[in-house]
Amino acid sequence: MKNLSLYKYYNYFLVKNLTRLKCTLLIGALFFISCGDVNNLMITKKEAKTENGRFELSLMIDPDIVYESSSTKLITKIKRLVPKDSLYTVGSDSVQISTEPSMYCLINSVGGSLDIHSLIYIDNQDQDNIKRWFEVSLADSLGATWEGLAFYIPSTPVKNAGHISAIFDGMNLTLPVKLVANQ
After folding, report:
1. Helix count and strand count (H, E) for the chain
2. 0.70 exceeded by the pTM?
């Protein structure tokens, strides 16, 4: 009789704990399923990259949605893919001619203005189209990187979308920006 009551007790103990374990696993699974960001709605950063064998150019905005009274962060990165020494060609009379590009990165925007927080060169010869160039200072070694920072501020009245672009050494990048009017 004593063995029978112990058997019932252990069975009850196992059933009760297995039921708790199943409930815990079910709640955990539901939690992870519901928190899974299938459409990447929580990821507000957009990035584009391109390379030409000599340099890698990347453009990143965070967040990609900008409200009328806010701004978004813009980061432009340039990475050296080959050492500067290999960017020389030999001309006549063994004179070395540099094939290093001018170290400026053109940054521009549509649907807003840029508040630039890096060293810049401003070309305002054409008053309708003022160009802003990041001054790029990049070390000569392989893998050296440069980073420029700016903020995109939408112009009012806000349109549906804007664009940010960067041009360096024959490479072009552009990213769309979703613009939202305050209500």
Report:
1. 1, 13
2. no
